[in-house]
Amino acid sequence: MTFAERPEDLTTPEEALSMSGLEYMERMLAGELAGPPIGRVLDYAATHVEHGKVIFRGTPRFDFCNPMGTVHGGWYGTLLDSAMACAVMTTVPKGSTYTTLEYKVNIVRSIPLGMEVETIGTVQHGGRSTGVAVGEIRGVEDGKLYATGSTTCIVMRIAPPA
């Protein structure tokens, strides 16, 4: 996956609306479309995409710590929001867009710095106006559960220009 380095690298709204969410995610994973710059900054990227499911992998660095030296909850939240919302995106039809309305994170245990984790987002409901998904963060090597999450996204049909 390649990441956008400047605004011009991102897909235009018109181009994004010309494909389904699944097609968009597949093309991004294949490197045909630039990934979001936040993935480069926070060291995570999509590794698997299918209808209703997206997997990201990431590794927390010291830069992502809170004042107590543990991984900041915002890093957990960002990975979960990305995986869960992108899973919903895979159910969004051509001509529509979506955004997160709310998400919740439950941190089970602290992720050790430098340990690669996998964040799995799975759709529970992909409808015309809403999408609901759940997620979990697990250690790649140890398989332990580090956090869970849930999200509700709004799906919006965009009318073509008159």
Question: Can you put this structure into words, describing what you see?
Answer:
The chain is α+β, with helices and mostly antiparallel strands and 162 residues long. The protein has a single domain (7-157), classed as Thiol Ester Dehydrase, Chain A, CATH 3.10.129.10. It is built from four helices and six strands. It has helices at residues 13-17, 21-29, 37-41, 73-89, and strands spanning 44-50, 53-58, 96-107, 117-126, 130-139, 145-157. It has a six-stranded antiparallel β-sheet. β5 (130-139) and β6 (145-157) form a beta hairpin. The mean pLDDT is 96.
What is the name of the CATH architecture? Answer: Roll
Categorize the overall geometry.
globular
Q: Structurally, how many domains make up the residues?
A: 1
**Helicity range of the residues?**
10-25%
- What is the typical, i.e. mean, pLDDT? 96
* Count of alpha/pi helices: 4
- The count of DSSP E runs of length 2 or more, i.e. the number of strands, is 6
CATH level 1 class label: Alpha Beta
Précis, in short:
With about 160 residues, the chain is an alpha+beta fold.
Helix and strand arrangement:
Blueprint: H1 13-17, H2 21-29, H3 37-41, E1 44-50, E2 53-58, H4 73-89, E3 96-107, E4 117-126, E5 130-139, E6 145-157
Antiparallel strand pairs: 1-2, 2-4, 3-6, 4-5, 5-6
Identify the notable features of this structure and list them briefly.
162 residues, alpha+beta, Thiol Ester Dehydrase, Chain A, 6-stranded antiparallel beta sheet, 6 strands, globular
